[in-house]
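Narrative of accomplishments. A recurring question from our advisory board has been how the design workflow behaves on a single, concrete structure rather than in aggregate. To address it, we present the structure tokens for one chain from the evaluation set, followed by the sequence designed for it. No filtering or post-editing was applied between the two.
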């Protein structure tokens, strides 16, 4: 299975460029899209020329976020959000259930300029990790998306200068990622490339077992 995770920073904008050509050339079984910046009907319209794929997106009050899953196989079910009102207003999570696993696509909150949302981010990491743990009780889980964190120093340039000063590279956010991993997940990219300096800064794929690999 080939799985692609892609923060498009506006689905309508990228469709007007080379997105559809790149999409076709990648020929993935599942695409997980973050930051569509469009509501459900707008996502459907932007991707209306795609054939052979099932498109599911999460619509929410805050239009700047939103995530989507595009798959060749129709999911058994779709779950939007994580079931907690305080965290379900920004369209950050969509889960697709397949025969042997759940696929969770997420756009994790940014702690913001001046780290103004750092406390909220800490709360989010807690409830999101619990949500993943609840799914894991039923089936294997793959999580992919934009985690808005540099988990290790090799995930970003100038780590010393940015530590505890820059959104995405505070100890609170690092601990939040550790909390998710502690639920039994592995960072697939770092499992395959443990020492490669790659400034992914937040784009991770997590899975329960090393043989379930999600490409980023």
């Amino acid at each position: 299975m080939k799985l692609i995770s892609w923060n498009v920073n506006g689905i309508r904008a990228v469709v007007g460029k080379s997105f559809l050509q790149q999409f076709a050339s990648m020929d993935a079984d599942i695409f997980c899209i973050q930051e569509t910046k469009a509501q459900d009907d707008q996502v459907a319209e932007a991707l209306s020329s795609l054939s052979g794929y099932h498109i599911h997106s999460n619509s929410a009050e805050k239009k700047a976020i939103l995530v989507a899953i595009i798959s060749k196989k129709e999911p058994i079910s779709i779950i939007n959000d994580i079931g907690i009102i305080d965290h379900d207003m920004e369209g950050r999570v969509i889960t697709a259930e397949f025969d042997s696993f759940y696929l969770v696509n997420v756009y994790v909150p940014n702690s913001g300029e001046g780290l103004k949302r750092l406390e909220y981010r800490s709360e989010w990491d807690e409830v999101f990790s619990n949500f993943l743990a609840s799914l894991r009780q039923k089936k294997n889980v793959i999580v992919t998306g934009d985690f808005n964190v540099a988990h290790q120093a090799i995930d970003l340039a100038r780590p010393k200068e940015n530590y505890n000063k820059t959104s995405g590279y505070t100890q609170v956010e690092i601990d939040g990622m550790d909390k998710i991993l502690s639920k039994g997940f592995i960072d697939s990219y770092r499992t395959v490339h443990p020492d490669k300096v790659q400034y992914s800064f937040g784009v991770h794929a997590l899975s329960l077992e090393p043989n379930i690999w999600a490409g980023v």
